[in-house]
Design a protein that fits this description.
The radius of gyration is 26 Å and the shape is flat. By secondary structure, it is mainly α. The protein contains twelve helices and no strands. The model has no long low-confidence stretch (mean pLDDT 90).
């Protein structure tokens, strides 16, 4: 039903765009009918979204809501483009706006069909963000101690100074366990995703709610990783590093606790949860050992 409503909007947007693609303009009556039809299709799509039961999962509803909002915004942009563009011929802006509506409507075929697929979808996007952040800081770390070499280029070393643009040996020691925490984040997301894929169920409300809890908790990991990565660049503020490392460790421990008590982690297979918990504790202990608790 949702797929049909998306197709209806795509068809009405096409009809609306073609009507204003060349002179003469539609009559006042014709314009009214075009507006009425496209409005009816948008209302129908919105109604179908609101009919999606909350008990099917908040993660699934969130993804469908975002897709629905994208379509509505695309229709608004198309109408605004047509209103603001003098009618001579089909403009590039009108073509792009029409194509934008088509693209948004076509995404319906990619939407997850249940909460398990929805959670896997969002966790995949979070994993990519963490992977990118890890690669960024590792690449900077491997640039001969000069993370800003690609930005500052050939600026004279005396002008740049050492402390503000280079990592000291003490900085590198602090960075090692921080990178360990980021790698533990990447591994945790990977293992939790595998557990959801292999054992996730949507037959009972309790299971659906557990999947939503995992999705909500995992959404905090990438922002926490980004905040830690940012404060690792020189000049390194050890108090900020310790704070952000502790924040990331707390989020990871929370997710591992949730997954360990959920249906996606059978007791016979939970050794990886214990291993990652130990990895988080070990790296956080090293960060505390190497950084002050306050300035």
């Amino acid at each position: 039903m949702l797929e049909q409503s998306f197709k209806m909007i795509s068809q009405e947007a096409t009809k609306f765009s073609l009507a204003f693609s060349k002179p003469p303009l539609p009559s006042a009556e014709g314009c009214g009918k075009l507006i009425e039809d496209i409005e009816k299709s948008v209302v129908t799509m919105s109604a179908v979204y609101y009919l999606l039961p909350k008990c099917q999962g908040t993660t699934l509803r969130r993804i469908v809501r975002e897709a629905t909002t994208d379509v509505v915004n695309g229709v608004i942009q198309l109408i605004e483009t047509i209103v603001s563009t003098p009618l001579q011929s089909l403009s590039q802006e009108q073509l792009m706006s029409t194509g934008g509506v088509w693209e948004s409507c076509d995404r319906i075929t990619e939407l997850p069909r249940d909460n398990q697929a929805a959670v896997l979808s969002v966790m995949s996007s979070y994993s990519k963000l963490v992977k990118d952040a890890l690669e960024e800081i590792e690449e900077a770390q491997n640039s001969d101690g000069d993370p800003f070499s690609d930005v500052l280029g050939d600026i004279d070393m005396e002008e740049r100074g050492n402390r503000d643009t280079y990592w000291s040996e003490a900085d590198r020691q602090v960075m090692a366990p921080c990178l360990g925490l980021i790698k533990a984040s990447k591994a945790s997301l990977k293992k939790v995703s595998e557990a959801v894929k292999n054992h996730g169920k949507v037959r009972e409300q309790e299971y659906i709610a557990q999947l939503d809890d995992l999705a909500d908790c995992s959404s905090e990991i990438s922002p926490s990783v980004d905040e830690l990565v940012l404060c690792l660049y020189p000049p390194m503020n050890y108090v900020a590093v310790r704070f952000n490392a502790a924040k990331l460790a707390s989020v990871l421990k929370k997710m591992l606790d949730i997954v360990g008590m959920s249906h996606v982690c059978p007791e016979a297979e939970n050794s990886w949860v214990q291993f990652l918990n130990r990895a988080v504790d070990h790296n956080m202990d090293k960060v505390k050992e190497l950084t002050p608790a306050s300035a």
